[in-house]
Amino acid sequence: MMGLRDYWRVLARRWWLIAALVVLAAGSAYVYSKLQQPFYRSSIRLFVIPWRPDYGVTLVVRETIRQYSQLLTTDAIINRVNSQLQLDLPPEEFRRRVRVSEAADAQAILIEADDPNPEMARRIVLALAEAFREQQQLRMKDVDKRDRVDVERYDDPSPPVLAWPRTRSNVLAGGVLGLVVGVLIAFLQEFLDDTVKTVEESERLLGRAVLGMVPRFPAPAGRKSGGSSVEMEKALITRLDPRSPAAEAFRQLRTSIQFASPDRPVRSLLLTSTGPEEGKTTTLANLGIAFAQAGSRVIMVDADLRRPGLHKLFGLKNQVGLTSVVVGDPDQELPLFETGVENLWLLPSGPLPPNPAELLASRRMAEVMERLAKAADYVLYDSPPVLAVTDAAILASRVDGVLLVLQAGKTRREFARRAKTALEKVNARILGTILTGVKPDRTLQAYYGEED
């Protein structure tokens, strides 16, 4: 069940959509108003004068209004005004332009008329007032003086004012409508969006702690399209800009891992994800740098024998690596490459084998993993997504801990649940999750910006 904070987060995430709809609706209302033919309104009041002092004035006014309304529905008076003013308006159109009501002072009849020509609006109400006054005089001609009710003009026609379109009201109504529609669409999108977006959502969904939140930062191009050396360098934010919020996020992740299991120290870690392009490889590279910067000896192992990418991040070749050791001489020296970061080495994937899963599940692979564990304080394994192939599940049962990488706004909830289930089936020790692609906190950005 969503709370007030959840509602606020939904609105904050989609504020641009709401704002766009408000501007669009208000702008459309403004354009619509400007395209409409303007109508001007003039009014006049007729004073009701009963000759009998004790006559109910309110009743007289109401009766007169009713009678006048009936007169306005007759073609005779319409034709008279049409002829007098040369309007040539159909009776129904004439009736739509004229309104009769009781004036606020309760002793007068208010006549209003609308017309595209402001002067014509004034002439219409004047003609109607005179026509009604003459009709009333004819009706009262043979009435006893004590029962007569006269009608006289209370004032001259009012100066015509713009009655339509009401641009300001239309724009305001359009903006309110856009706001309502925007909020409804925002919550509809939230309901239809089945991706993991927040720490609370991830922890509630998987029952695992989020050990780190990695904010958005420049990442290399996708593996299919490749990426320049400059793009790859930008991905190593912990080395490129160690004082940035993203670099601090990786240091916090390092600390969280170190304290995640005080009774069973974690020395070998597997990073996997639910699918491709969720930041798994970039996260592992920066985490390795963070561990190395703290003085630990770290070996990164590219165990993704299908689409390896660690060697590209560090600008290294992939001619020899993990597969060379597993299928070659077991006594040969591990082909560890320096990365340019002190205490950090990389074991690339090596030539891609035709049977990656069988190779990773082999006894020789287990022996290589034992050698790696003895050669460093931390060994970080990069693997394919756990839902794509069985490679990650095979390795997960052989390491001290597994970190599941989820990308905010991209990883689907169902995929996250399935990934957790797949890891639990092989008795993997899931330390927690890492949420990547998180929107940077403005306060932290300002703080680190000042420091720089």
Q: State the name of the first-level CATH class of the largest domain.
A: Alpha Beta
What is the SS-derived class? alpha/beta
Give the overall pLDDT as a whole number: 86
Helix content: 40-55%
Main sheet characteristics: 8 strands, mixed
Structure summarized in a few sentences:
The protein is α/β, with parallel strands linked by helices and 452 residues long.
Layout of secondary structure:
Layout: H1 4-13, H2 15-35, E1 39-50, H3 57-72, H4 75-85, H5 91-97, E2 98-102, E3 108-115, H6 118-139, E4 149-153, E5 161-164, H7 167-192, H8 199-206, E6 210-215, H9 229-235, H10 237-240, H11 245-258, E7 268-273, H12 280-293, E8 298-302, H13 310-313, H14 322-327, E9 337-338, E10 344-347, H15 356-360, H16 363-375, E11 378-382, H17 391-396, E12 401-407, H18 413-425, E13 430-438, H19 442-451
Kindly list the characteristics that best describe this protein.
single chain; 452 residues; alpha/beta; Alpha-Beta Plaits; Rossmann fold; 3 domains; eight-stranded mixed sheet; five-stranded antiparallel sheet; 13 strands; disordered C terminus
Would you kindly provide a written description of the structure presented here, covering whatever features stand out?
The chain has helices at residues 4-13, 15-35, 57-72, 75-85, 91-97, 118-139, 167-192, 199-206, 229-235, 237-240, 245-258, 280-293, 310-313, 322-327, 356-360, 363-375, 391-396, 413-425, 442-451, and strands spanning 39-50, 98-102, 108-115, 149-153, 161-164, 210-215, 268-273, 298-302, 337-338, 344-347, 378-382, 401-407, 430-438. With 452 residues, the protein is α/β, with parallel strands linked by helices. It folds into 3 domains: 4-35 and 167-190, no CATH class; 39-164, 2-Layer Sandwich (Alpha-Beta Plaits); 196-451, 3-Layer(aba) Sandwich (Rossmann fold). The strands form 2 sheets. Strands 6-13-12-7-11-8-10-9 form an 8-stranded mixed sheet, with helices on both faces. Strands 1, 2, 3, 4 and 5 form a 5-stranded antiparallel sheet that branches. A hairpin with a 5-residue loop joins strand 9 (337-338) and strand 10. Helix 4 crosses helix 6 (118-139). Residues 442-452 have low confidence and may be disordered.
